[in-house]
């Protein structure tokens, strides 16, 4: 009788070896970037969206982004002046804390700072995000929704009904007050009514350029 794939046991040795290879590759890639690029910037992200980060990568296709795995990246830069890969790269390691990433680039410092200071994109808020505005819905026909959406809207807490096949809001409805921590239902309603309240933005926090490190 053939063995079940679900019952197959993967040895820790194999798993650890694969993980070690991945970490080693990341260290090598970062050190290669230190050799190829003049500058490295540490950045944080407000309202992280993978699709939007992908768009930023495309806009900066001649640069390199690394995000996550801080401890592994610290190995590439070095933990102290004694084991750093290049002058002052251990200072990068000291600032790799929390949800941050690294941008390697050869662009001029002024151009890098200017681009990220002006770049921001609106997106829909998620559960737990603060409401940036008070949103009230006025009673009446909701012609933007097909009749099949009415049960879903009602399940979200909206006082809706079908009148002659048209989704109708029976009473005025307060979706949220400014400053509220949004519930999953509120976030879903705001998205359905095309009201974005989150801003995807990358903030540069520090920079290493030609061996010199500075906070921004």
Notes on the protein architecture:
The chain is α+β, with helices and mostly antiparallel strands and 216 residues long. It has two domains: 20-123 and 200-215, Alpha-Beta Plaits, CATH 3.30.70.1730; 135-195, Molybdopterin biosynthesis moea protein, domain 2, CATH 3.90.105.20. Helix content is 34%, strand content 25%. The protein is built from seven helices and eleven strands. It has helices at residues 12-36, 50-59, 70-77, 90-94, 109-118, 150-155, 184-192; strands at 39-46, 64-67, 100-105, 121-123, 135-137, 140-141, 160-163, 166-169, 173-176, 198-209, 212-215. Strands 1, 2, 3, 4, 10 and 11 form a six-stranded antiparallel sheet that branches. A three-stranded antiparallel sheet has the order 6-8-7. A hairpin with a 2-residue loop joins strand 7 and strand 8. Helix 1 crosses helix 3. The N and C termini lie far apart (64 Å). InterPro entries: Mrt4 (IPR033867), Ribosomal_uL10 (IPR001790), Ribosomal_uL10-like_insert (IPR040637), Ribosomal_uL10-like_insert_sf (IPR043164), Ribosomal_uL10-like_sf (IPR043141), Ribosome_Assembly_uL10 (IPR051742). One of its GO terms (biological process) is rRNA processing. Keywords: Cytoplasm, Nucleus, Ribosome biogenesis.
């Amino acid at each position: 009788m053939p063995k079940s794939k679900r019952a197959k046991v993967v040895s820790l040795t194999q798993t650890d070896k694969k993980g070690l290879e991945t970490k080693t590759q990341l260290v090598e890639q970062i050190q290669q970037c230190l050799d190829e690029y003049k500058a490295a910037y540490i950045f944080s992200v407000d309202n992280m969206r993978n699709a939007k980060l992908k768009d930023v990568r495309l806009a900066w296709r001649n640069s390199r982004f690394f995000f996550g795995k801080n401890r592994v990246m610290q190995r590439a830069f070095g933990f102290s002046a004694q084991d750093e890969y290049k002058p002052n790269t251990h200072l990068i390691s000291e600032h790799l804390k929390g949800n941050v990433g690294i941008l390697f680039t050869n662009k001029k410092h002024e151009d890098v700072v200017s681009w990220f200071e002006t770049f921001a994109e609106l997106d829909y808020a998620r559960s737990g995000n603060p409401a940036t505005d008070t949103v009230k819905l006025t009673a009446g026909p909701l012609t933007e929704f097909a009749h099949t959406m009415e049960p879903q809207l009602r399940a979200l807490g909206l006082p809706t009904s079908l009148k002659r096949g048209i989704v109708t809001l029976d009473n005025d409805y307060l979706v949220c007050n400014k400053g509220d921590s949004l519930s999953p239902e509120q976030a879903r309603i705001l998205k359905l009514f095309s009201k974005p309240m989150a801003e995807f933005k990358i903030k540069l926090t520090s920079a290493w350029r030609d061996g010199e490190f500075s906070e921004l």
